[in-house]
Specification:
By secondary structure, the protein is of the alpha/beta class. The protein is 42% helix and 17% strand. It has 2 domains: 3-207 and 387-395, 3-Layer(aba) Sandwich (Rossmann fold); 217-379, 3-Layer(aba) Sandwich (Rossmann fold).
Length: 396
């Protein structure tokens, strides 16, 4: 008899955890498992890549309610004479406008505001998996019946104060907690050392054949530029270090480098980034491409992949660049040496714009180093689909 699995994640927008989940779903043996997938936000770009065997559950009632215009949701509440959802929505909206919260704090405030109006999942599963920290973790702990519960942690996750106290009562309900790298695990254990015995490490799964095939579909860049193409992939958010990237870009221009620096991603810093680009006359050099369902042709046709992150759980985009033999320049975030070998598959530099710019210039000017890195990448082990066996060990 097949085992029933439930995966829960915020959305399938184009980001590391989301791509990791889609890859995992593509590798699961569906003769052994039935799979439901629950999303808090629907209609995102990676949903089209979910295998047809996966049952994407209909949106939660509150998720449907919360995306409606505020006047429409108010009228709906009046017509039903039920203001619980509207009150919860206004409570959360007011709270986050009054104070600047970090992501972990936003998740707590959201759940405190709206959990009472979120319905329980009606099924009982063999295994329920929260595939991201925050709201998915709270939901699986509180709203799902399952014989075993697993929580994924895919960022460097440090909690203090009321956030630590709040989240502990949810993590207590999990049988296993999975970090996506050794450093992610150890950083999580700084907050919750009591969970060491139930923590595992399963790296974000990369399927090199899938990435290679996808890289040959589509055209990628369309501007006929023949200088150095630099690429960064990541949400337009503080974590990704776009302040460092923009300053490094400015330094490259000042040094007369013939380059274009492309960015795949979207996020809250879009307006701020564009303003910096205009103010510093970088319009022809720092180019926001938005989100692409298939980023791999862009990676393959890049000369250098650059990651300026301040923290990462693993760094999936770096792994994808490596699989397509593109030299990497990356900042020295916590988990970087889980996959980077200094001066072999790329350059690890200090977390500042000068170091990033110098690393890029080194790869551009030092042809021998760049060729050596490219040859190393071609011989480097590709992907880690064997990590699926660790997953099976957890769910059998």
């Amino acid at each position: 008899m097949k085992k029933s699995l439930l995966f829960v994640i915020d959305s399938l927008d184009c980001a590391g955890a989301e791509k990791s989940l889609v890859t995992l779903l593509s590798l699961i043996d569906y003769s052994r498992f039935t799979v439901d997938l629950m999303l808090f936000s629907h209609g995102c770009i990676l949903e089209k890549l979910v295998p047809e065997q996966v049952n994407i559950l209909k949106p939660l009632n509150y998720s449907t309610f919360a995306i409606k215009p505020i006047n429409q949701s108010f009228k709906e509440s009046i017509s039903k004479m039920d203001f619980k959802m509207f009150t919860s929505r206004m409570k959360y909206s007011t709270a986050i406008r009054l104070k600047k919260y970090r992501n972990s704090q936003k998740a707590r405030v959201y759940w405190q505001s709206v959990s009472s109006v979120i319905e329980n999942n009606a099924k009982t599963y063999d295994i329920a998996i929260s595939y991201a920290q925050g709201v998915p973790t709270f939901y699986v702990a509180e709203k799902v019946n399952a014989n075993k519960k697993l929580a994924w942690v895919n960022v460097s996750y440090r909690l203090t104060g009321k956030d630590k106290v709040f989240q502990k009562k949810y993590y207590d309900q999990y049988d296993k907690i999975v970090g996506v790298s050794e450093s992610t695990k150890e950083i999580f254990l700084e907050t919750f050392p009591e969970y060491r015995s139930k923590m595992e490490v399963i790296y974000d799964i990369n399927n090199p054949q899938f990435i290679s095939d996808m890289a040959d579909i589509g055209d990628g860049y369309e501007d006929n530029f023949d200088g150095v193409r630099i690429l960064t992939i990541g949400r337009l958010a503080r974590q990704k270090g776009y302040d460092i990237a923009l300053e490094a870009c400015k330094k490259l221009k000042e040094k007369g480098i013939d380059f274009k620096w492309y960015v795949l991603g979207k996020g809250p810093l879009k307006k701020e980034i564009r303003q910096y680009v205009v103010t510093h006359d970088l319009t022809d050099h720092f180019i926001l491409l938005g989100v692409k369902a298939n980023p791999y042709p862009y990676i393959k046709k890049s000369d250098i992949y650059v990651q300026t992150s301040k923290f990462e759980g693993f760094g999936l985009a770096i792994a994808e660049a490596r699989m397509l033999n593109v030299p990497v320049v990356t900042t020295k975030f916590d988990a970087v040496y889980n996959q980077m070998v200094q001066n072999k598959n790329g350059l690890v530099v200090n977390m500042d714009s000068e170091s990033v710019a110098d690393g890029i210039i080194n790869l551009i000017n030092n042809h021998n180093l760049r060729n050596e890195i490219t040859e190393y990448l071609k011989l480097e082990k590709k992907g880690n689909v064997e990590e699926i066996e660790k997953f099976y060990n957890l769910v059998v």
